[in-house]
Amino acid sequence: MENLHQERVAVTAVNPNMRSYEETYSSFQFEEVEKQFSWYETGKVNMAYELIDRHVHNGLSDKIALYYSDNARDEQYTFADLSKQSNRFANVLRKLGINKGERIFIFMPRTPELYFSLLGSLKVGAVVGPLFEAFMESAVKDRLLDSEAVAIVTTPALLGRIPRSELPSLKHIIVFGDEVEAGEGIVNFSSEMAQASEEAEIEWLGREDGLIIHYTSGSTGKPKGVFHVQNAMIQHYYTGKVVLDLKSDDIYWCTADPGWVTGTSYGIFAPWLNGASNVIRGGRFSPSDWYNTIQKYGVTVWYSAPTAFRMLMGAGDDTVKQFDLSSLRHVLSVGEPLNPEVVRWGLKVYNQRIHDTWWMTETGGQLICNYPSMEIKPGSMGKPLPGVQAAIIDDSGNELPPYRMGNLAIRTPWPSMMRKIWNNPSKYEEYFRLQGWYVSGDSAYQDEDGYFWFQGRIDDVINTSGERVGPFEVESKLVEHPAVAEAGVIGKPDPMRGEIIKAFISLREGYEASEELKQDIYKFVKEGLSAHAAPREIEFKDKLPKTRSGKIMRRVLKAWELSLPTGDLSTIED
Ligand code: WTA
Prior knowledge:
The chain is an alpha/beta fold. Helix 18 (515-528) links the parallel strand 25 and strand 26. Helix 4 (47-60) packs antiparallel against helix 5 (79-95), helix 5 (79-95) packs across helix 6 (112-123) and helix 5 packs across helix 9 (189-195). The chain starts with 20 loop residues before the first helix and ends in a 12-residue tail after the last helix.
């Protein structure tokens, strides 16, 4: 396939400050990695202990673990502080009778309390479920119902989006904020924390015991609860070392929210397993606030996403010049394809190679990367890490030669591989339908040097600003609007956001297409589901293309949108 040729030049030599190729290879001996963790001596483990308390016992008590700032707060916490705060929260949970394996959701904006809660929940052996603060009632309800969560930590502003009467398993709502009075099922975070002891017993776990559930979107049905176990820490620790290149004096900043897997695997687990100082910035995206964050803390390692880099590029080179970003030594990206243009720009304005990394909620950790000790090719996701075997395979599981496009697949298992889809074993098995492979749902090809090049999703999942949105979930919300008869949702290519959500809608009798109605429908999804899932573009149609079995053919909608051939229409209704 000649036409798949892209720019394939390595940009700049490998940075000598980074871990060498030899070191990267030699440290992938997972047995060696395991010696870091408690189970090596006791057979038992606990992620929160390995993240925080282990460092306290190893002489890092006074090291800053967390630098936090937003427009109102500016704080810092040592490893000893985080140990105490998470102990307090663990005691709050124990008092409520919460036990190992039970699900606790965390639904709040990024503040230090989110991190205390998450770590404290892990200390009692609970499985945490982080949620974006942008989620509205129906998104919250689906996730809590499916996982039968027993508790949720939230803030007064978000409390109204938790439909308590419809959630029979939910016993406790822990609210961080002064205005809240304790009452039936409502616990005041601050007053309970103040009374709780700073000492707590760790719930020691097996390595296959639960850690976290991240809900993520597929093309059909409700979001899937991707379940990860303690054992994932091997991958988090190892990739933190050889991909993030974390060393003891690094100031690390991952811009992702913990509602997204990047914000936990690489916003919490990888940096703290490696004992790094972790920067968390609350509040919304703003180019000058972001650059100021790098300058203020002297950030050395920075992990963000293509959509953010594109917005920073849009803010202009002059904005960059107003700040001192010379502390940066390593920059990485994840979530969607990283445009070669952005890589070239990063080289020019930051004097840094932006390292693309590929992985998914389901994989728990990075698998294919431009890791620091190799040359990068702009536009390529990089190569499998040592210890990871990736391939392009056809639908029967045969490996394809270079430049042939096919399913991007990973040899099973690896340490952070998901262990189930909550309540949905058949969905889980779909990923492993080809013997010995995890089939990612992405299509890609490999070049003759073994670099992987992303081509697209095989299903209809939309990637908008790096977030996965399932078309079905949006369509389901759309048809709840009184004017909407039917809806089909696709991702439409967009220079800034990667894709935007476009909805094709047929109206019910008695409704007229209008600009106002579009606005109203947009608002309806934004307020009922979440802002990032709301269709920025709406097109009214008399009829939507459907199969004879009644399924809306998103593929045809997409072809219309992009003026492409519609392909095989033999199953279309009329
Ligand atoms: C896409 C994010 C191109 C891909 C950690 C994948 C990427 C989905 C890249 C997972 C990349 C992620 N280049 N596409 N470097 N990284 N993707 O679960 O389609 O939110 O399947 O996890 O994002 O998204 P998720």
